[in-house]
Amino acid sequence: MLKRSTALSLVIASLSAPTLAQDLALNSLPKLETVRIIGTQVEAREVSGSSAVVEPQQMQIEVVTDINQVLKTVPGVYVQEEEGYGLRPNIGIRAASSGRSSKITLMEDGILMAPAPYSNPAAYYFPTTARMSAVEVLKGAPLLRHGPQTTGGVVNLVSTPIPERRAGKVQATLGEHNQQDTHLYYGETNGNFGWLLETVQRSTEGFKDIDRSNRDSGFDIADYVAKARWTGDRHALGVKAQYSEEVSNETYLGLTDEDFAADPNRRYGLSSIDQMNNSHKGFSANYQFDLNDAVTLNVIGYHNEFARDWFKLGTSLVDQANSGDAAALAVLRGEQDAEDLGYKHNNRVYESQGVEVNSRIALNDHQIEVGLRRHEDEMDRFQPVEIYDQINGSLVFDRIIEPTGGDNRLEGAEALSFWVTDAWSLTDALKLDLALRYEDVDSYRNQYSTPERSDEPSYRSNSSEEWLPGVSLTYDLSDQWQLLAGVHKGFSPLGGGATEQQEPETSTNFEAGVRFGQDQLFAEVIGFYSDFSNQTENCSMATPCSNGAESGTFTTGEAGVTGLEFQLSNTYEWGRFSVPVHLTYTHTQAEVSADNAVSGARDGDELASIPENLLSLRVELDNNNGWRNYAVAKFMDETCVSLGCNRSGDEQDRTESLFAVDLVSRYDLNSDTAVYLKVENLFDEQVIIARSPLGPRPNKPQTASVGIEYTF
């Protein structure tokens, strides 16, 4: 407790000191707009680290419902698709691998949104993308303002803002596979008060057909949000409440390579009873106080609850069948009876909460932030297993096995974070950003051997504290050319399953690049390098570690990730049409840099889940009279399923590369009403986009939808 009390005293002193700066000017601090961590796309091109903003216009025109598809247009970001709809995305950034997005910092409106960001960061909950107005991605040293994951980057989802006047929207989309999406909101600002009510309702029957079953492979999602805001002369208060629930007939069971080649949209009858049920509640309050013209204080409190039960089959039958086991293949196809098939209730309840205090100070040529966050989270895992037999192709219930051991445990973490940043304008051309972050994390696990938890649990714990410094800069060579560079220390907490002896993942991360901007033309090239002293993988059934573990952490040791990000955008004129073009490319090499006798990793082993090449091209054709057409082409290279697949030469150790094109055509009937047509995966290209969990699975096939949007 002593070290935490000391850090708290430092922060209180830092927050008190600014009251001396009575006569200083603060550069137009917004009222309660801490929901954004970057701002606009123009501001993203001035940050002293690689960053990007997907603006509201792009989100609206592309009718974004799958976060995977929009993030594929951001350099340095890679995603591993799973079920084709982005319900539980796997997002990686630079050196942070993509498994369940557990190695990046995920936020909604600037607040941590993973179910248990420190003890269990795997993002089994992800906000409904259809209700987001923008997406921000921040990389490099500036991300130290956030955390806890500080290696690869931050993804911040910006929800629908409270309208500045009375306004609303009704949007309805119908598509193949009985897709039905509805987005409604209504709100206003009247004097000092503003409010917003919003809902998204989504459903589909899915694109996969289940053997010998009349159950579809789709989902139903309902999401509700309420916001309120009061703004005074020097005070502002905003509150937000969110509730969502989901039922999806989703499985972990994939296909054999042979069956995938014949029909990638098939599902085995063994998975017919698999289903995810979950609900999420989120509450937050944000208070802002302008002490004077130079100092602003923000206090944010948040509380999130997430409950899920993913009832699904766990089996190695696909691996056995791919290895030539004819009996396993016959069981999968329903041609042979089988006993003792285990369907686990992956039943977990998460809770996270915290308070964050942040002060912004304008001091001559300095823009300083000093802040503190106290956070705690926990996960309660109670997972009984139902045993079924397959008889004549049908599933017959047998018995229930009550949970013990790894299926019956409590995990949690307490964390104290402190940060201080300084945006220092040394000259008109040279701007220096200094950052220092402190993370103090205590985690634990209580594991029970009896279902009633009447025994003395086995106990493990881990404590870690890290000081994370960073520095970055921009230098304007001219009105068009700008240099940027930075270095910072990366950190990834181990989670609730860590033992006392384990060390958290740390790295030193470098980047340097150049930007050019003139009129509509913008170009940026950034090179990056991450040097890991202790690279780790977070293990789960969804993304097993390279050693096969499905829980805890696997440490591979020293590793290096080298890459290059490139983006180019311009707007051309073609007769009466405007043609905006945006190109992005990312090249990454990720491998172990030293032999490790403990993990078995060898120098040169390729790291898992990081593609070598990513490419996206977005082209718009706008007649400047209400008719806009988008074509978005995306390429993602193959990836290793597990560490060192480059040594095996086995195709089953890799995913397949994918090139896909989406089209959107939008026509404004009048100033309030627009209709649109969207075709995803225009050329109907389907590949093995993932091999985990439990076998090959495809990306979404060609899918068309139409919709109407009315704003008022």
Round the Cα radius of gyration to an integer and report it.
Answer: 25 Å
Give the tally of β-strands: 35
**Percent range for β-strand residues:** over 45%
Query: Major β-sheet, in short?
Result: 22 strands, antiparallel, barrel
Which parts are unreliable, with pLDDT below 50 for 5 consecutive residues or more?
1-31
Mean pLDDT: 92
Shape call:
globular
Could you say which structural class the secondary elements and strand pairing correspond to? mainly beta
Q: Give the count of helical stretches.
A: 8
Taking the alpha carbons of the first and last residues, their distance comes to 54 Å
Helix content: under 10%
Features:
single chain; 712 residues; mainly beta; 22-stranded antiparallel beta barrel; five-stranded mixed β-sheet; 7% helix; disordered N terminus
Structure description:
The protein has 8 helices and 35 strands. The chain is mainly beta and 712 residues long. The strands form 5 sheets. It has a 22-stranded antiparallel β-barrel. Strands 1-6-7-4-5 form a 5-stranded mixed β-sheet. The longest helix has 15 residues, at 2-16. 48% of the residues are buried.
Short summary:
With 712 residues, the protein is mainly β. The chain has 8 helices and 35 strands.
